[in-house]
């Protein structure tokens, strides 16, 4: 039973396929060696040469039956240049040549010998021929015609014995000469071993490639791979669908035109294109183009395309994950909009504080952006990338604050979570914890917070051992902590521990030069949300310009942001609001006029008396009346009463 199959299909896909190509005496050696490897490979015999062999082999390759071709001499070299599968050559070594020469000299003593070798002659052998006392002439060949010419030349030079490949031996016999076949059984065995192993590896690689393509084909994201010359190597159906390409047309050409700009940008700038939003065929797509680097060298690029709607669904899923949003600092110090001297001072102090791990105390009125500055300090510090945990000390009752900040062990109190719960200080380990409204912290917890700041360790409720923490503390308050210390409402030692680096954020009315710029920034950021056109945006800004210059902004940036949102809704292209309605929608204009009148009245009183007005001790009722007249502007009310803002604050509390 023959070990060779003539069918194009491999009857046993589990074994790799090897094609044995021989048009002469090499075939008998292959038939002798092949049975030893039938358990490791399937063998296909091809007895054509050169162009005819390529045609026959290509059918096997297209059918997926042949992984490696085994051949010899010029025939093998030709196949290697014209086939897409590896070609293993039967190699002639020095032992084969010497063995053939020995057989020739033993059989035909003193006969002139001609040696025909593929591609090059052996200069070392030429030097040895005199020492071996052998009359030896050599010729090299690269094609069938050169084999025939070599044999004829050697015969003309008196050679009676020809050593060479099968074709040279056949031509020698036709010319009446003796011949010795050059290839040995050992050389064929070595070639078989290499070809079978290479076929096994090739089959494994092909199996992995098919598996990978199958996986990629099932991806919802579009994927396309290109070599370093920009030629398409692989593409999945999702890419064609997302880009709206016609599968009946030239797909590589269409795809190259579609993704060519991204490939060129990646190549020219040596930087990946990441998460770029492109509008293609009425669909928003997220595009990435990343270079492929192998062993330190760029070998191509891979382009991925994702439907933006899918990304939105993924984003919604991520928002339901266990990690709270407050663990991430989203803002940077560059997000502080404005160029006033007061704001530049805040940036400068914040950057200086970010370079160290010292505790920072942020003070300022509500709405001035204390948490934004805290996040900016975190992102400018070496702790960026680690947790940023924000907690409002006025948001929970005293008992819950203690549990939230310091955590608790299982069974520490009725209703305690099974297994216990880490506190926010533990969650913020290696990162930053932001304690907002620190002035509202209950007195009983101030001592526990002080111990955390001093010892850098926390004691859970119900625990018998402290847990070390590495955390940076940023505290914030809108209250005068120094006054609270004087009143005994805040621990002095905690105040001095917190007040290491203090940054006071100016209210919006004290940096009026920034209001218009800040308003434009906030409105641009939310223009898409409210569907504002460019003309509508400018109309909103023009409408609110008087407020930018004269309004007291008691709610600071938060009030400005809310006012802009209200104006964007009522002054959009689709809104139909009359003048009377606008007066009701924007009462800030009325309060602005009251504030201006109060300030002008105070100034007129000063001028009327020549010097400062005669002071009297104002009462709380005087303070509240002045605040009402000034539209809530404490600075204007203080000036109108002739007292400082601290005194005003104390009278309000009284």
Automatic annotation (TrEMBL):
Q: Name the UniProt key words of this record, in alphabetical order.
A: ATP-binding, DNA-binding, Nucleotide-binding, Transcription, Transcription regulation
Superkingdom of the organism of origin:
Bacteria
The PAS domain, residue ranges:
208-249
The record's section on CDD domains has: AAA
Q: InterPro entries from the xrefs?
A: AAA+_ATPase (IPR003593), AAA_lid_NorR (IPR058031), Homeodomain-like_sf (IPR009057), HTH_Fis (IPR002197), P-loop_NTPase (IPR027417), PAS (IPR000014), PAS-like_dom_sf (IPR035965), Sig_transdc_resp-reg_PrpR (IPR012704)
**Domain Sigma-54 factor interaction, chain residue ranges per copy:** 336-569
**PANTHER family, sorted:** PROPIONATE CATABOLISM OPERON REGULATORY PROTEIN, TRANSCRIPTIONAL REGULATORY PROTEIN
Instruction: Write the protein's name.
Output: Anaerobic nitric oxide reductase transcription regulator NorR
Species this chain originates from: Paraburkholderia haematera
Q: Which gene encodes it?
A: norR_1
């Amino acid at each position: 039973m023959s070990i060779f199959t003539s069918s194009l299909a491999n009857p046993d896909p589990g074994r790799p396929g090897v094609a044995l190509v021989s048009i002469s005496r090499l075939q008998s050696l292959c038939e002798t060696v092949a049975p030893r490897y039938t358990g490791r490979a399937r063998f296909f015999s091809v007895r054509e040469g050169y162009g005819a062999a390529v045609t026959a082999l290509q059918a096997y390759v297209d059918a997926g039956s042949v992984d490696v071709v085994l051949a010899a001499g010029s025939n093998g070299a030709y196949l290697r240049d014209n086939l897409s599968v590896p070609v293993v050559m039967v190699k002639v070594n020095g032992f084969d040549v010497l063995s053939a020469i020995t057989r020739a000299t033993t059989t035909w003593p003193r006969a002139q010998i001609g040696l025909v070798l593929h591609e090059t002659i052996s200069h070392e052998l030429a030097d040895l021929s005199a020492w071996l006392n052998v009359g030896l002439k050599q010729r090299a060949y690269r094609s069938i015609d050169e084999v025939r010419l070599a044999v004829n030349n050697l015969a003309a030079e008196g050679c009676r014995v020809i050593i060479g490949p099968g074709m040279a031996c056949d031509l020698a016999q036709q010319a009446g000469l003796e011949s010795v076949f050059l290839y040995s059984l050992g050389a064929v065995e070595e070639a078989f071993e290499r070809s079978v192993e290479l076929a096994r590896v090739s089959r494994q690689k092909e199996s992995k490639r098919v598996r990978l393509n199958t996986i990629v084909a099932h991806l919802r994201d579009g994927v396309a791979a290109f070599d370093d010359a920009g030629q398409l190597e692989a593409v999945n159906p999702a890419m064609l669908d997302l880009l709206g390409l016609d599968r009946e047309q030239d797909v590589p050409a269409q795809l190259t035109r579609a993704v060519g700009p991204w490939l060129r940008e990646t190549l020219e700038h040596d930087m990946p294109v990441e998460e770029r939003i492109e509008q293609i065929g009425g669909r928003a797509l997220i595009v990435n183009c990343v270079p492929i680097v192998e062993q330190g060298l760029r070998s191509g690029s891979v382009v991925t395309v994702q439907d933006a709607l899918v990304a939105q669904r993924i984003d919604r899923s991520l928002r339901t994950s266990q990690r709270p949003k407050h663990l991430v600092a989203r803002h940077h110090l560059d997000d502080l909009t404005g160029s006033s001297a007061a704001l530049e001072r805040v940036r400068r102090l914040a950057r200086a504080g970010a370079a160290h791990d010292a505790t920072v105390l942020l003070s300022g009125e509500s709405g001035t952006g204390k948490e934004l500055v805290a996040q900016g300090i975190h992102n400018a510090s070496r702790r960026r990338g680690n947790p940023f945990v924000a907690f409002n000390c006025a948001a929970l009752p005293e008992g819950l604050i203690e549990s939230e900040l310091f955590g608790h062990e299982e069974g520490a109190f009725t209703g305690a979570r099974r297994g216990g719960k880490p506190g926010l200080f533990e969650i913020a380990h290696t990162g930053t914890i932001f304690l907002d409204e620190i002035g509202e912290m209950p007195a009983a917890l101030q001592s526990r917070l002080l111990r955390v700041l001093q010892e850098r360790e926390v004691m859970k409720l119900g625990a018998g051992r402290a847990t070390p923490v590495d955390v940076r503390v940023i505290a914030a308050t809108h209250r005068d902590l120094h006054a609270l210390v004087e009143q005994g409402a805040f621990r002095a030692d905690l105040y001095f521990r917190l007040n290491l680096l203090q940054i006071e954020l100016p209210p919006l009315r004290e940096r009026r030069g920034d209001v218009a710029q800040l308003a434009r920034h906030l409105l641009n950021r939310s223009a898409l949300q409210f569907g504002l056109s460019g003309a509508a945006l400018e109309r909103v800004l023009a409408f609110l310009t008087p407020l930018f210059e004269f309004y007291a902004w008691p709610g600071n940036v938060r009030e400005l942001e809310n006012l802009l949102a209200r104006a964007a809704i009522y002054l959009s292209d689709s809104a139909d609001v009359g003048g009377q309605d606008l007066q009701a929608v924007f009462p800030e204009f009325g309060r602005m006029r009251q504030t201006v009148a109060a300030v002008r009245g105070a100034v007129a009183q000063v001028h009327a008396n020549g010097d400062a007005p005669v002071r009297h001790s104002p009462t709380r009722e005087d303070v509240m009346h002045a605040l009402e007249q000034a539209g809530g502007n404490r600075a204007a009310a203080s000036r109108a009463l002739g007292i400082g803002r601290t005194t005003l604050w104390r009278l309000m509390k009284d």
